[in-house]
Design brief:
single chain, mainly alpha
Length: 60
């Protein structure tokens, strides 16, 4: 079925202009969230996970 507008495999795609518009929209939507501070408890949890991962990788 060539010419149907869908790529092989049936996965939908976006043209470059649509991707650009979507990217700008998502950036505007999430920018305020990125400017918020991280809860100190969550930051400590992330640091602990990083330390645990580093220890596991050091053991192999």
């Amino acid at each position: 079925m060539s010419g149907s507008g869908e790529p092989q495999g049936g996965s939908p795609t976006l043209d470059a202009a649509s991707r650009e518009r979507l990217g700008r929209y998502l950036q505007a939507l999430y920018e305020p969230v990125l400017d918020e501070g991280l809860d100190p408890r969550l930051a400590e949890l992330i640091h602990q996970l990083d330390r645990d991962r580093a220890e596991r990788e050091g053991e192999s």
